[in-house]
């Protein structure tokens, strides 16, 4: 497919090269040369439009696939979490308790600092 396009592009370039030779030899384009130039130009532009159209189609397909991949990744993450919960049902509870302990420790640190400052102040 690409080889065909390359050959046709070369042909159109060859035609435009012939046109420029005719222009330089005669100094003006004949109607036949003008028609060849228009034909070559319209063929070239049609091919460019087709290439752009295909490019957009491929881009849309890739984006659609990426969207599906992202959805599947989210679904797999959810399944993984569910499997981990099934593997150790107490793990969630332990995690929650650890978070509560960490929060309490933070509070105790600040209270300890303020109480140490007060002890130093009153001593």
UniProtKB/TrEMBL annotation:
Coiled coil (UniProt feature): 66-114
The record's subcellular location field reads: Cytoplasm; Golgi apparatus
Q: Which GO terms describe its cellular component?
A: Golgi apparatus
Question: Which stretches does the entry tag as region Disordered?
Answer: 1-31
InterPro entries associated with the record: GORAB
- Tell me which family the UniProt entry assigns to this protein: Belongs to the GORAB family.
Keyword terms, alphabetized: Coiled coil, Cytoplasm, Golgi apparatus
Which ranges are annotated Polar residues under compositional bias? 1-27
Which PANTHER family does UniProt cross-reference here?
RAB6-INTERACTING GOLGIN, RAB6-INTERACTING PROTEIN GORAB
Name of the protein this chain belongs to: RAB6-interacting golgin
């Amino acid at each position: 497919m690409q080889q065909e396009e390359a050959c046709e592009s070369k042909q159109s370039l060859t035609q435009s090269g012939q046109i420029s030779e005719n222009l330089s030899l005669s100094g003006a384009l004949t109607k036949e040369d003008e028609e060849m130039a228009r034909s070559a130009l319209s063929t070239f532009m049609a091919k460019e439009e087709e290439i752009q159209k295909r490019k957009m189609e491929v881009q849309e397909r890739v984006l659609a696939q990426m969207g599906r991949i992202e959805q599947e990744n989210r679904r797999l993450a959810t399944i993984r979490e569910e499997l981990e919960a099934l593997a150790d049902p107490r793990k969630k509870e332990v995690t929650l308790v650890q978070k509560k302990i960490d929060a309490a420790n933070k509070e105790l640190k600040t209270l300890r600092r303020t109480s140490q400052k007060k002890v130093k102040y009153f001593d």
